[in-house]
Task: structure prediction
Amino acid sequence: MLELGFGLNFHDLYSCAGLRRIDAAFGAWIEHADAALAARLAAARADPAALTRLQESELLIALAPHLEDWLALLFGIEREVAALQAAQQELAPLFACKRQVVQRKAMNKYKAVEAATFDGAALRAALEQKIGERLTTQGGELAFALKVGEWAAAGESEDAAHADDIDLALRYAAWAAHTPEGKALHKAGVLFKAPRKLDYMRLVPVERETRDGVDRLALSEDHTRRREGFELTDAGTDLVGALDQAHYCIWCHEQQKDSCSSGLHEKKPADGSGPPFKKSPFGVVLAGCPLEEKISEFHKLRTEGWAIGALAMICVDNPMVAATGHRICNDCMKSCIYQKQEPVDIPQSETRTLKDVLALPWGFELYSLLTRWNPLDLRRPVPAEPTGKRVLVVGMGPAGFTLAHHLLNDGHTVIGIDGLKIEPLPPALSGKTALGDSVSFDAIRDIATLDEPLEGRVMAGFGGVAEYGITVRWDKNFLKVIRLLIERRERFALFGGVRFGGTIDAEGAFALGFDHIALATGAGRPTVLELPNGLANGVRAASDFLMALQLTGAARVDSVANMQVRLPIVVIGGGLTAIDTATELMAYYPAQVEKLLERHETLCESSGEEMVFSVLDPEERHVYAELLEHGRAVRDERERAVAAGEQPDFAKLVKAWGGVTIAYRKGLNDSPAYRLNHEEVIKALEEGIWFAEGLSPVR
Result:
């Protein structure tokens, strides 16, 4: 059971009156801890507009560590928070060494041409003997950083006694960072990984090959990876990777040039004319984060070891952070101050910050609280008093659930509806009955209790396009986190299977007493090509395929649902929907034929193979036999992989049978997916997909 400090209780976390008590308790604590800071906070709340952006940033950065300490006391997790802080601080020498030693000294002293002449293996052996660790491990990289720091400090006081040792380290660092062999050896680490110079025309390292008379683009074998089924295929970065990005950030807010947040501004002529923002080489406006999230500020806090403080900073502008970040949006990244080299991977850093806080005991409750009460939000630290206004939000996708959150914080009552069936959660978890009535619910101590393997996860219906349109490169368990953030609220109710314009219309909603209707129904109309035979057997809209794949459960082994696709497959279009569709088809085909084979064998045992084929017409028998043959090949590959102790290579089979090709009317560099999010293109091609340029369907 959750026992809060400062005389507060669990109910206080979710009631307006309780949140005001929480705010008062924190105010009293900060007054005692730092009276001058408390006075600055009070003045800023009274008149936020009086602060410049830099003054506001400085105030919030000063306040965030106190907030972290107070929240640790509130939830009784001082020991766990201290351990997280210590883990971050222990890694600090790694990033200092990377910037000061590897990048500024080694790579400048020994350029790539000279580094290529070094004997990397001999240098590594000598260094490993001195540091006592394997350099290719995370512990080895940290040991290297610590040892180099010791040598440098000793050299300053002992007449450069360790000059040879330092030169050994610099030579190896230059070899590891400059040469292809060194980069490959340290691919999994961060210490010897320097930012790449950007070639905007070659952001995706493709190779051209000709197949069936058509030029296709693909990644080389050493860039591909094996995928099986629908488990999470990209878990995101770890703590080291996130801190690496935070340290790579140069905290531009201090110069008020944080373009990741506010956009990369054009220099305007004296008359003030001209566009406000620069454009990428592909014509994409670099307007920065749509929410103007305080990115530079949260990175600075993260580098100082304040994970909870960093999350609180994020939540000021982006309380629904669980729905953004890794694999969802990258406007911030595109507008990073680094335009000639790899930008800071802000989405990865952001999501890792959230995950590190969620992993704490009561981490969900802590994050949830910061979406309702956040003293770093000078303009609305606590929700507004109830207004008595009722709003119907139509559509529970990203726009709908985000709007619902802000309407609730503005004091309104919100009813959310969606045309999809939304699976109910247990009332002890959601705080709601099937009729939408509020009931008591339990505190969540361990975030792992909410997680489900994506392979067997039942589609809950909540989240709109985030539920059915995004591939398993994003952890859909975040959808349950987001749902609980709003479903547990006092003045919110959620109903699925309610179609606006059918089950209820505008007149009916107003007759029921709603004061406002917000349409958040998305832009998911399928694209139908006006072609001869455009609806022939085997042709399907991509959005329809994605929706059916997820919502029918066809992708799951234990589901009776089935959706037939045949190879070869061509996906027409160059946007992110095409990318998602191609990756899911690549994974679904082996699952489809293997599941069909198992069902066929079960039917044959009970009724005989002759009867099974007798009910099919000649065309169906041909297709059926083809799918069974492929199913046996998939089974054989699985058995081979088990015997070899490796992951099955289903992509090799799929490609041999015709594969999955994205066909686009222009070049790869012209495609919306490449221009907006080339990282997604890379992840798709890693799974064995081809991309064919300059092709348009005729019929």
In short: Strands lie at 206-211, 214-219, 390-394, 413-418, 492-496, 516-519, 569-572, 660-663, 690-692. The mean pLDDT is 92.
